[in-house]
Specification:
Belongs to the short-chain dehydrogenases/reductases (SDR) family. Keywords: Oxidoreductase. InterPro entries: NAD(P)-bd_dom_sf, SDR_DHRS6-like, SDR_fam. With 250 residues, the chain is an alpha/beta fold. The protein has a single domain, classed as NAD(P)-binding Rossmann-like Domain (Rossmann fold), CATH 3.40.50. The chain is built from 7 helices and 7 strands. The protein has a 7-stranded parallel beta sheet with strand order 3-2-1-4-5-6-7, sandwiched between helices. Strand 2, helix 2 and strand 3 form a beta-alpha-beta unit. 42% of the residues are buried.
């Protein structure tokens, strides 16, 4: 029986932020199936503990915290020894016409989608928490990088900034043997898309525009994260993988 698997995460310690729901939850669960030991982080203790109980294997850990708070970041860092991988999945959406896009709205979205993950990565690097040959994965988006539509300027701009940081960090951290990549999903069936201003009819109309005639599932994104975290992608850095059911190919 063949047991060779270049996508195995056996023996790897991986941090996943935003792991209490949606894409982050799926990434954590699927990585555990591939043999990884997980540190999962989120703000909702009940949901995070449910995810912890769903992970396969042993040695996993959950850390409750808001990564916009310095004390919570310090607490997380104090509980991390060394990591082989990080997935920054925490994020927030917003649909709002540009004329109503105040500085406060920009600050709110950028703090969560951009500044929080970038600052945590900076501290992980500074405090030497990342092993040589480790992998960093940012969940970006095609919104602001591949698709541009009315009402998405704040969210899209935050994701465009994050995609630029993927490339800058890939260049700077290559000397430390740390790879940095992004995943740019299209619309994925998560609670996030239900928190916006789009109606079910508008979502159905948008879904019909996708060549594969469906939105993605969280697992579709998790499998790409596994690839980027595994040794199978050891020569991949500074890239953003588009997983969007073909919508940006039109």
């Amino acid at each position: 029986m063949l047991c060779y698997n270049p996508y195995s995460l056996e023996g790897k310690r991986i941090l996943v932020t935003g792991a209490s729901s949606g894409i982050g939850k799926s990434i954590a669960v699927e990585c555990s199936k591939m043999g990884a030991q997980l540190i999962i982080c989120g703000r909702n203790q009940e949901r995070l503990e449910e995810v912890l109980s769903a992970l396969e294997g042993t040695g996993h850990q959950c850390v409750i915290g808001d990564l916009l708070q310095n004390e919570d970041i310090d607490s997380l860092l104090s509980q991390i020894s060394q990591l082989d991988g990080v997935v920054f999945s925490a994020g927030k959406g917003l649909t709002l016409p540009f004329q109503f896009s105040t500085r406060e709205k920009f600050d709110d979205i950028f703090n969560i989608n951009f500044f929080s993950p970038v600052e945590l990565l900076r501290l992980l690097v500074k405090k030497k928490k990342l092993h040589s040959n480790s992998s960093v994965v940012f969940i970006v988006s095609i919104g602001g990088t591949g698709r541009f539509f009315v009402g998405n300027s704040i969210y899209g701009a935050s994701k465009a900034a994050l995609q630029a940081m993927v490339r800058f960090c890939a260049q700077e951290l290559a000397s430390k043997k740390v790879r940095v990549n992004g995943i740019n999903p299209g619309m994925v069936n998560t609670p996030l898309i239900r928190k916006g201003t789009l109606t079910d009819e508008q979502l159905e109309e948008d879904r019909a525009k996708y060549p594969l005639k469906r939105y993605g599932e969280p697992e579709d994104i998790a499998y790409a994260a596994i690839y980027l975290l595994s040794n199978a992608s050891s020569w991949v850095t500074g890239q953003s993988i588009i997983i969007d059911g073909g919508i940006t190919s039109k």
